[in-house]
Amino acid sequence: MPALSIKDAEVFYESAFAPWVKALDISFVRVEKDGVTLRIPASTDLNRMGGTMSGQAIMALADTAMVFAVAAFAGDFVNMTTINLQTSFLRPVKDTELFAVARIIKPGRTIMFGEVNLHTGDADKPVGHVTSSYMLL
To answer: What pTM value is reported for the model?
Structure first.
């Protein structure tokens, strides 16, 4: 089965995601079978009081990254639904881009388990960690 490309991911993102998710201005840094990296730029539109990025925006990025991690692992876009998304916010994100590095940690026939590490450019200084599970429909 051919691997998914960044172009494949961009086309699917534009055609299949809700406008409010597309408003995050997600870009694709890496799309490979062993994981994906997505990025959102700094934006005051994503901030909460105090000027830090809102948890909702961070979780939406992480959830979206996992959709693409599942697709890259499977070799194609599959219908799925999020079962669980457990987020630990480790430090605030302020005035900087945010990266989500997602990978499958346990694949299954109907349920995929994954994790997302969030950072602002230095993977050794995470700002968040997400564990999640997805049901393939």
So the answer is: 0.96
